[in-house]
Fold:
Amino acid sequence: MAHAGRVDLTEGQTRRLEEMARSLTLAARKVLRAKIVLRRAKGESFRSIGQALDCDHRTAWQWVRRWEAAGFEGIEHEQEGRGRKSWVIATKGQEILQKTTQEKPANATHWSRATMALAAGVSESTVGRIWHRNGLKPHRVAGFKISNDPHFEEKLVAIVALYLDPPEHAIVLSADEKSQIQALDRIQPGLPLK
Structure:
């Protein structure tokens, strides 16, 4: 491992790094990075930095190199492509969304995480992440309705466009095949007649 030289900091950089190192609201990984750069600027070796901050000396070396290459940008932002790739969500996500919104499980009124996980062959937590990312809550009847109309999306775009940019002297009329009271009747118990 090549050794980076001593880090030279301006007064402003030192002040900002010290603020980062003392921060109680900043992410712990960023606080650690600031402490590493400050200790290297004082001339400490990577091994002593690692021991003092309870991290590997190669980690200290890596963040000093990132500091030398890009300054604050190098230690404050993660590199693209870091972290675990969620291939399951990419491959099974559409299937789970389609089943959730268009199908009903056998012998149940709605999908649960467990039933969907069994049907899709994934874990319950994966189902939960997919539902959360897409704002789905199948257990909540009041907020979970989607049209089965194959032309729903283009109709939605046309209606929203009318509201966002209405033509001059326009009148919008709407007709529904069922009145609101009939639609409510399907999900609410009927009122007793007196």
